[in-house]
Design brief:
The structure is a homodimer of 344-residue chains. With 344 residues, chain A is an alpha/beta fold. Chain A has 12 helices and 12 strands. The first copy, chain A, binds a DNA duplex (16 and 16 nucleotides) through helix 2 and helix 4.
DNA sequence: TTGAAAGCGCTAACAA
DNA sequence: TTGTTAGCGCTTTCAA
């Protein structure tokens, strides 16, 4: 009895093993009551027929797909690759499948969300873009937990985890001030992202509080990308011939790296001698020889862990908690782009 | 009639719109015969109820999930991130969902494949690891096309796309010879990957043919990672004090970058004055100021395009073609780690 | 163009 | 511990 072309179902296995179809189902379900002998016979038959249980079919009855959607903005930023990796690792370990989506940064994720909903995912992790209240509503009605990663929707009840971005921005301001900087450039990121906004705000607020006049904080649009950071730096200091400040803060590492390459590669600026630079994220590249970037570390592992906790995949039925907003603190990783204060 | 908690089905919509359930199904199916009036009424009702069609349920009857599995080895290599990005973009544009998997490099992907098969994916793209003939068989029996990306299984009938890695290796050997190199180091990658093997073979074969004695080709194990390339370089030239050769070829860019950082950062070697370096892949980072790496470009767009063609998602029923193996040529991208021959 | 009815492959009561 | 039976939410004949 060779496996016929196409599909082998539990019925085929049942027939070969001489049991009922439900017995087959039980043999493949953890903790189902079935005798060892029968299970073994069924597994044998299944192997012989190359039977693979159909999760799609079982999802229909169990109302669980064991799939989670991960919606990402920007895979050009290594930080989010790192996040994706961490999520995949954790989710895979739990036997959960990952439906991956990308959404252009700043654009609305409603479409992506709608498509994902059709697949009856058990949960959604969103690292990108806007989320309409209508969508939050739909997910809520359907009992699908949705977790925002490094993002929050002001006034929404969606849960999320994020780095304490504002505090991180302040940390960097303090670090730079402590190292003696008095004039600054701020490489800003995606204007729609709360993440960028918070870091920027924390940074400038702190500077202002410490008496730095607004004129001494030059704001540059870096688009959150390497190329954006590179281009903005060139434009400001080469094309527009603005004076080089004491320090530049890239709202994320990848922009800071773009700035560094522009500064050193095209303008011969020495870092940190001529100018200090600070980043945010602590991506792997920040530790490499060309950069050795002092930055604010985001604890990816803790953050992804918390995100999955919020998803609470083990408690399907559980009423979705109203907007829990977890803020994980970042901390400075000292490397060589900012002289470290000796007072430690 | 507010949307009840939980699930709204086509039946609910049918009730509200005053039509049969099958009419609702038709309203949501392209090219189904249904009157415009009815369709509009149904769509209205659906909107009112926040109805989202259940793809899981429809997959059961149509036998198509519109999901494709992408199995990846190594997201630490930016090249594969680029591949993933390209695949996501293309697949998403066609309305296909992506089930993402990672498999430890060199390990067997059977488990991942089995899990994926349960989800009745319409196709599989595999960039990683081994693939047992049993698995190829199962996929074949079930009519699931499987495409190997930059990999092939010698003697298997699985289709695939790859860069002409051997030819690329030769290209680099020629480039280095042309620039005057006579002694070499070869940073090898994953010993189980055909990709690495082919590049290495092409490289050494060419060198040998051109009269370079084997003693002048030092082989280093770089594990296909930045850290691996970095460490192997340090070990060979710093710890073991081997003489620095004229040139080093990193089987992929990320290893070459690791080597460059080790050479310049820890040993003060000048590139290309003291030693030339060649890479393979042409990842974005290779073009950046600290590296400006001369490398063999893999045409990611063409390759992913071809991969999807092989998948042939539009012809579900079509008998799976027997092992088509597409080889796309790479070409040298000249930058500054190898002096460019003037004879052009 | 429409609706009724029969499944798709599985799980989950319910009896035995 | 088992088998029987009734769905899960949809698509798809088949008649009307």
């Amino acid at each position: 009895m060779k496996p016929l072309s196409g599909r082998v179902t539990s019925l085929d296995v049942a027939a070969l093993a001489g049991v009922s179809q439900s017995a087959v189902s039980r043999a493949f379900t953890e903790g189902s009551s079935i005798s060892e002998a029968k299970r073994k016979a069924i597994l044998d038959a299944a192997l012989k027929l190359n039977y693979v249980p159909n999760s799609i079919a079982s999802s229909l009855t169990t109302r669980r797909t064991n799939m989670v959607a991960v919606i990402l903005g920007n895979l050009d930023n290594p930080f989010y690759v790192q996040v994706l990796k961490a999520l995949i690792t954790r989710l895979q370990a739990r036997g959960v499948q990952i439906l991956t989506f990308t959404v252009k940064n700043g654009s609305n994720s409603d479409d992506a969300l709608m498509r994902v909903l059709r697949y009856q995912v058990d949960g959604i992790i969103l690292t990108s873009a806007q989320l309409s209240t209508r969508m939050t509503g739909i997910c809520h009605d359907r009992g699908i937990p949705i977790v925002l990663f490094n993002r929050y929707i002001p006034g929404s009840s969606a849960s999320g985890v994020r780095c304490d971005n504002a505090a991180g921005g302040r940390l960097m301001a303090e670090a730079l001030l402590g190292a003696g900087a008095r004039s600054f450039a701020l490489l800003k990121g995606d204007p729609n992202g709360t993440t960028s906004q918070d870091r920027q705000r924390g940074f400038t607020d702190c500077l202002l509080e410490r008496g730095i006049p607004p004129v001494d904080i030059l704001e540059l649009e870096g688009q959150s990308t390497y190329d954006g950071g590179h281009a903005a730096t060139l434009r400001a200091f080469l094309d527009e011939r603005r004076p080089i400040p004491d320090a530049i803060f890239g709202i994320n590492d990848i922009m800071a790296m773009g700035a560094m390459d522009a500064l050193r590669g095209e303008m011969g600026v020495k870092i940190p001698a001529d100018l200090m630079v600070g980043g945010f994220d602590n991506i792997d590249e920040a530790d490499r020889w060309p950069y050795r970037l002092t930055t604010v570390r985001q604890p990816v592992d803790e953050m992804t862990e918390e995100a999955l906790n919020l998803l609470d995949l083990d408690n399907p039925g559980a009423a979705i908690q109203p907007g829990i907003d977890i803020k994980v603190p970042g901390r400075i990783v000292w490397r060589s782009t900012i002289p470290r204060p000796v007072d430690l």
